[in-house]
Structures are given as C-alpha cells and as structure tokens.
C-alpha cells in the first residue's frame, strides 16, 4: 500500500515519536489477513549502527542491496538516482522480485539507462529497475525494467502480478527537452520487462499521477492525482474494456472517469471522522489525453467536480478502495486546512467515508506535512516512511495507535563523502514476511532488513 507524502511523524528520537489522529487504525486493515494478528507494541530502542548507515532495534540487521552510482548487474549502466516507490513479488524457488521506481526529473544526476525495447522517450531520465533476490536476499540480477519516462513516483501492483508505474508530471513534448508527452501510467513485468516494454497506457489519462489500486473483483483501476497547488487534483477510476485480462490487457483501452461528491467541491472542508457521503457520482473525463486542458480543469458540467489537495496514496482492502489527501493548506488555495485525511470508497454502495484525520505531530517544524509510503507489517501494524527535515525515520504504528521508530538513516556528519540521507520511500515486505525492503531516496540506496518481525 502506498499512501501519502511529506512529514507528519517528526520526532528525531531513538525512543519513539508522536502522532495525532482521530479514527480507528484497525479500519485500514479491514479484509486483510494481518487483521487477525495486529501488532500492539514496537521492537524496542534503536541501536546506533557502527557503520553509520541504518540504526535498527536490537535483533534486526540490514543488507545493502543496491546503491546509486554502482554498476547494474546487467552491465546496462549505473544504478540510477532517486529511489522511490517499490513493490515485492514472489518468484520461483523462494525468490523475490523487486521493482523500484526512480523519480528522475530532467536534472537527475544519474538517469535510468536507455535500453532497446524498454525506452519510451530517450530524453526522459526516469523509469524502473528490477532486482531478483534469492531466499537469503543475495542479488541474483539487477536490470532496467523501463526507461525514458519521467518523475516515476509511486504506482501499484495488479492482481496478475505486474507493477503500474506512474509519472508524476504532465510535461508535454518540447518541455524540458522531452521528445514525447509525459504524464502516463506504464505497466512493468517484474520478471520479463520486455513483455510489457515501454507503452504508455494512454486511456488511463495524462496527468500528475501518484498511485493506483485495482479492484480484484472486476479490474477497475482507481487513480490519484498529486496536484500541490490550486486547481487541485481529482480522484479517478478507469473502467477497462478488457478487465482482469492479465499482462498487457490495459492497453485495450477503457473509460476514464472522475469522482463527484454532490455538494462537496473540495474534500478539505470535511473535518470529522465518520462523515459519510452516499450517492457518489462518476463523470466521464472529456479529454483523458489533456491535449489542451489538464484533466482537473476540464468542463464537468454545471455541477462541477470534486477536488482535493495532494491526493497521493491509494490501496485496496477488503471490498473498498482507500485514498489519501496528504495535507491541505488554505495558503495554497485549499478551502480548509488539515494534516492528512484517509478516505474509504465503497463501490457497491457508492459511499465515501472519511475514516482517519491526522493532526499535528510532536515537534513538527513544518506543520501540515504527512507520511510518505505505508505498508502492512507481517504482524499487522503499519510501517511508515518519513519525508521531512533532519534525521529520517521509518516509523511503525500499532493498532492501538502507538508510534515507534523502526529505522533511522544517517545524518549529515559534515564531510563530502558522507552526505545526509534523504527521505525513506518504497517500504514493502517480502512475500513470506521475513524481510522489509526500503529505499533511501538520495543517495539512492535499497536496504533489506531482517529480524524478528513476527514477534
């Protein structure tokens, strides 16, 4: 589950953190196997790493799988910059396949190497790399999975075992030197990238994509739009012409729609958890390719459409889709302020419910910012990547609302060869639950963390 961006957990302490919210965290686990065994405590105090890379609780250890600037095992070039969203897939013989986004803009230090058959736009520096690991987390292969894209931030997995990587930009050809339009979703096969190639799923819309979630019952794809400044983004659904058709089926096209909540033009105005809206409507997007007008600005009729600032995380749980508004600020043009919302949409009832509202975190220096990536732990809690200033953490959240520090990245020690770690991103667990994989955004580094997760 990928969910939200920015900082809400901000206590740079090895002992814990503070977070304020209203609602019930168990709501987020509805329909998951982990809900039967939700974690209630953390794993203890962080132990300083003698190598100065990653502080973990006692009993846990890490392995560096991949570093920015190293040679890719495939020999295709260097490991690219800006490691972001990531997912783990089960392979044969207890192998694990990782697909890792690279949120590279035109100014990125190390681009994703162009590979024949896997490159969309030679001027694009973003894309994905794929790693194959054995049961002991030894890297068996590392290669380009897609190249020539731009600002690959998050995405989501499909029921048929592929990764949908999302471009968080809407730059058109001729902007930043690009030869082609950007702002699309691309499908990536974790085991054989040439099966999926570098084909934009144009019917799914061209806008500032963040994340997706697929309804496993009917193949409907839900999409978030991360628009920071007004006019804010929309929440979309894509009705595929070939639902649940497997790898490549989304290329067959379909219909893109935007969500309208009657009487609610801006979701930020809803502040109370448990608020329910029935009769949610879905309106066809007039021009999904946004040839002349961004999709969020198009004409949706006299009733208008529903906007929200910083729509980011999106995941499926039980019979509903959850999505996140990372924050809202009236100074940016939002109708109201909040520190983060998590919404649940029930397709069968056409019902939208506000289930979690975040408040200011302890010692927040930049209020109004929220977590980055979120995933379920094997014991059923949440693992949250921090995106803020100073020391960077991966935090855990128990069902009871306890927040604890799970990992802490290296801080700036004042030497050119030891820069400060950037945010954490892409947290995910191996299919067997025995390993947490997480990225440091910059300098790009991918870690495997093992230990007593089921404790």
Automatic annotation (TrEMBL):
Any Pfam family: PhoX
Entry superkingdom: Bacteria
InterPro entries assigned to the protein according to its UniProt record, in alphabetical order: PhoX, TAT_signal
Protein name according to UniProt: Tat pathway signal sequence domain protein
Source species of the chain: Streptomyces spiralis
